[in-house]
Structure formats: structure tokens, C-alpha cells
Amino acid sequence: NKIVVYMGDRSLLDVKRSLCHEMTHHKQNQEGRLKSNSGEDGSEIENESNSMAGLIMRKWGRLHPEAYEK
């Protein structure tokens, strides 16, 4: 019931993507879908979190294209 995202030596966009990923896991947990092995690479739960984080960041990026400019 606690989300911790480490920020050291990471870009702000990567931190935002991680937060989206972990918030998706939080929703999965609220729905009772998490199990002890849910976070394994390639699992349905982990793939869903990766996919949702990417989708959210793409939508956010369309609203804030300046964030991707150097």
C-alpha cells in the first residue's frame, strides 16, 4: 500500500514512467489481481503495467511535447 520511486541519476520522464507503472500495480492490487510472482518478467501483470505506463506517457507527451525537446 505504499509506492516508492527512486529518482537518483534518472531523467524526469523515466521517473514519471515508473510512477505510472507502479500506479498500475496499485490498481491491480486493489482489484485483487496481484500474486507473489506477479512481478516476474513477461508475466501478464508486469506486461500490463509496462504497457499502461507507456500508453499514459505517450498521451502525456502529446499534451507536453516540450518535455521531449533537448
Instruction: Report the biggest beta sheet as strand number plus sense, adding barrel if it closes.
Output: none
Return Rg in Å: 13 Å
Residues in helix, %: 55-70%
**Percent in strands:** under 5%
User: Overall 3D geometry?
Assistant: elongated
Task: Write down how many β-strands occur, each being a DSSP E stretch of 2 or more residues.
Answer: 0
Nearest-integer average pLDDT: 94
Oligomer: single chain
> How large is the count of helical segments?
2
Alpha-beta classification = mainly alpha
Which regions contain 5 or more consecutive residues with pLDDT less than 50?
Answer: none
| Run of helices and strands | HH
What is the first-to-last residue Cα distance? 36 Å
Can you offer a commentary on this structure?
The protein has 70 residues and is mainly alpha-helical. The chain is elongated, with a radius of gyration of 13 Å. The model has no long low-confidence stretch (mean pLDDT 94).
What's this, in brief?
With 70 residues, this protein is an all-alpha fold. It has helices at 12-30, 44-63.
Give the arrangement of secondary structure elements:
Blueprint: H1 12-30, H2 44-63
What descriptors fit this protein?
single chain; 70 residues; mainly alpha
